[in-house]
Amino acid sequence: MIFLAAVSTTVPYASTQQAIGYPTLFLLVLVGALVPVVPTGALVSSAAVVAFHQSAPFSMLLVFVVASVAAFLGDIALYWLGRRGMGSKNGSRWLEAIRRRAPEDRLTQAQGKLDDHGVAVLVLSRLMPAGRIPVMLACLLAKMPLRRFARGNLPACLAWAVTYQLIGVLGGSLFKEPWEGVLAAVVLTLLLSVVPGVWRRLVR
């Protein structure tokens, strides 16, 4: 996606860019929500850089809508699969994948925050590196209904899309060439995701 975003600036027609870029962004963010190994924040920031350098109207708005809708649908699908696993005798591979990515200490913290703040903690979990999965598992263990989870997850996805889009706008405004802004946005988003984990390990 990062490569497509950088190359898309050389495509002469905005309609062609939109036909390729937005569906690709949607699919990658959706897959990234289901399989939490895809750096979806970097994807949104890269797309925002390209949109910032485009003259096409509403390009920034389209990036926001596509990213937030894809993230929301991916979260809902993963939560639904997790609930099915909770109700199954043998569990499911999706539930097991969620459990593997939620260390006990992070899960305990997430459960405490969920008890104190309710679904509002979903917004913070979406913005914190590696915070989404422990909170989602805490919601599953608390047997939160899907509808209630969806209500709390919607503003979380909107805030997430805005945050990473602003990072992309920052990168795009600092450099004249789109590929330079894409590179800066990717480096910044990766640092934001790695530094907190490294800091926690150093403190321990």
Structure, described:
- By secondary structure, this protein is an all-alpha fold.
- Helix content is 80%, strand content 0%.
- The chain contains ten helices and no strands.
- Helix 2 runs parallel beside helix 4, helix 3 packs antiparallel against helix 4 and helix 7 runs antiparallel to helix 8.
- It is elongated, with a radius of gyration of 18 Å.
- The N terminus is likely disordered.
Sum up the overall morphology in one term: elongated
Total number of helices: 10
Percentage of residues in strands: under 5%
The radius of gyration is: 18 Å
Question: What are the salient characteristics of this protein?
Answer:
disordered N terminus, 80% helix, elongated, 204 residues, mainly alpha
What is the element layout, followed by pairings?
Blueprint: H1 2-7, H2 14-34, H3 40-53, H4 59-87, H5 93-100, H6 104-117, H7 121-127, H8 132-141, H9 146-174, H10 178-203
Helix pairs in contact: 2-3, 2-4, 3-4, 3-9, 3-10, 4-5, 4-8, 4-9, 6-8, 7-8, 7-9, 9-10
